[in-house]
Amino acid sequence: MSAIESAKTSADANDSGMAAKDPAKRRRTLLIVASVFILAALLWFLLWFFVLSTRVKTDNAYVGGNQVAISAQVPGTVVAILADDTQHVEAGQVLVKLDSTDADTRLAQARSALAQAVRGVRQQTSSATSADAQVVAAKLDLKKAEADLKRRLPLIAAQAESPEIVQHLRDGVEQARAAVNAAEAQAAAAHAAIEGTDVAQNPVVLQARANFRAAWVAAQRNAIYAPVSGYVAERSVQLGNSVQPGQQLMTVVPLHDLWIDANFKESQLRHIRIGQPAKIVSDLYGSDAVYHGKVVGLGAGTGSVFSLLPAQNATGNWIKVVQRVPVRIALDNQELDRHPLRIGLSTDVTVDIRHDQGSVLANAPTQQPVAQTGVYDQMASQADAEADRIIRANLSHATAAN
């Protein structure tokens, strides 16, 4: 054995002897180690009780939003494209124009038909007035014939008038009475077409008005409008394309009223309730922008159920996979204005589950529309205003003539 090994052996023996001679020091060492483990366990328990148990978190969460498909409502040939990908458009802005030659021709025909219908009803009104005058004239003729017969009857008794003349008078009375009946029948027929309504509400005018309204709307639909404000994406339409109704031309994506679809594991859903607050951090901005939202609903099924090819678990080769359910979280529009997001972006979502007494599923249908637009209402109101103008213009001639 060398001198060095002998020295090490002697040192180890001395240390063992000292440890054996100082049990208090050993107990203190064990106590310190145990205290460290107990403190770590206590800190972990406090962290779990006050932090981890009050929230659920997932990074399987993505920004969602509406994707409004812009399509043609009438067939036509594209003559102008007024918006392109990435550009911002406002609701009511014209995006695409179609050739309007055929539609303008049909509109002119419908305009003429409406004017003709108004004038036709005016003519029927005049005919009814003329028929009433003929009834009055026929009644006067009958009254005159009856007066002549009454005046001649005493002369027959005195044999001052021949019976043939009196018979002719009686025949004249019958003819006058028949003429009155015929005039009344013609007057009734003339009034049947206009009775109970004015010119503007006459069925013939209303039918022509409806045809004009349809032609007006069809002509306006050669200009394809943006129903909502947003950003253009997926433009596929090109100049000269012959498009058909329902054919998608582009998409408008509103970057307001966005939401988060957070796909939580089924084991995380136990305490998630509608109305709970949530914090969202996007991969785009990181911790520089923290969004504050709230849970507005839980999906009616797992993602695998609604997939294109749902899993068939009733097979021999089965492996259990933890399922996920989408939880929709609404975002604050003011925060979106400060830090805009795009649909499809990845996010980290943390839901505060301390208050878990709310509803898991919605209890009543919403009373407000999910989305709406007034762009097409304006188009219909313009058609009604133009139809009213045509009716007034063709009625004014009758007023001026009278």
Automatic annotation (TrEMBL):
Transmembrane segments: 30-51
Signal peptide (UniProt feature, chain positions): none
Domain p-hydroxybenzoic acid efflux pump subunit AaeA-like beta-barrel: start-end pairs: 259-349
Entry's Gene Ontology cellular component terms: plasma membrane
Limits of the Multidrug export protein EmrA/FarA alpha-helical hairpin domain: 101-221
SUPFAM superfamilies recorded: HlyD-like secretion proteins
Family stated for the protein in its record: Belongs to the membrane fusion protein (MFP) (TC 8.A.1) family.
Protein name: Multidrug resistance efflux pump
Intracellular or extracellular location(s): Cell inner membrane
Main location: membrane
Coiled-coil region: 166-193
Superkingdom field: Bacteria
PANTHER family: MEMBRANE FUSION SUBUNIT OF EMRAB-TOLC MULTIDRUG EFFLUX PUMP, MULTIDRUG EXPORT PROTEIN EMRA-RELATED
Alphabetized UniProt keyword annotations: Cell inner membrane, Cell membrane, Coiled coil, Membrane, Transmembrane, Transmembrane helix, Transport
GO biological process: one example: xenobiotic detoxification by transmembrane export across the plasma membrane
InterPro entries in the record: AaeA-lik-b-barrel, EmrA/FarA_HH, MFP
Membrane topology qualifier: Single-pass membrane protein
